[in-house]
Amino acid sequence: MFLFSSEKYKLSKCFERYFDNVSANLKLAWSSINKYIEVAPRVIKILEDIDIRKIDADSITKLKKELNLKGLSPPRKNHYLVVLRNLLSFVKNEEGIDVYDSVKIKKFIEPRKKIEFLKKEEIQRLLDSIDDRRSITRLRLKTVILCLFSCGCRVSELLSLNHRDIDFQTGVFETRTKGGKIQKKILNSVALEYLGKYLEKRVDNHECLFCTHNSSSPKRWQINDLQRALRNQGRKVGLKVTPHTLRRSASSYMFHQGVSLSTVQQFLGHSSPQVTERYYLGDSSFAEVKRAHSEVMNIDFK
Prior knowledge:
Blueprint: H1 11-25, H2 30-47, H3 57-69, H4 74-93, H5 120-128, H6 136-151, H7 155-159, E1 172-176, E2 182-186, H8 189-201, H9 223-236, H10 243-256, H11 261-268, H12 273-281, H13 285-296
Antiparallel strand pairs: 1-2
Helix pairs in contact: 1-2, 2-4, 6-8, 6-10, 10-11, 11-12
């Protein structure tokens, strides 16, 4: 009876140890860590600060019913389930505590959204609308667009880079992905050319690859500022543009140029081809079927 009342097994204490672990070892992107830290207290509020070993199928049903009553979207509700799954997996695998099998927690079905991406001509239109000769901020924006499309990385990965991270001979650099893994990325010759122009025009000594230019004390360019700049520039040419749109556009362009699904998956740094297909290519899998069909099935039967 004493063991079940131990502070160590309380849901709140388990979450504390879990977040300490993922933060120290960067097993998740900071954006994901912060998102789950925000959700965890709400999970505790629904399930109460119970002993984690008491969580069972009824607990999961209770959590799901409460989430349904809140009227949250399926992706948002899944944040709650994922953080609980991760916690259960952590205490079982890292601490050897006998808890409910996290695999049994099934996520809510998320409706498949239309995958939005820009065609090559639309990206060219966007680039043409930016006169990079007028100011360094315009040159910076154009350079970022070219870099994001070229390497397909996440905006957080690109803006966290410093000068020394880029091999300007090969265009190769390393970045830490959403799952905490180190992955190599590549910049094409045009992106490298514009990056060189941008860095040459800068007069500051800041180590970051992209910085602010509106004060005497430059800082690393922030994601929300880049998102705003892309959104405003896109509106000028009638396009909806976000950093993630460029990432999807790069993967879609590669796929429709004949690059295999597995290679596009590696390009994006995804753990499975299903993630690549569902969230980045949409129904493009049929395009691969169609392409293969035209190559091998046009048999001239006589």
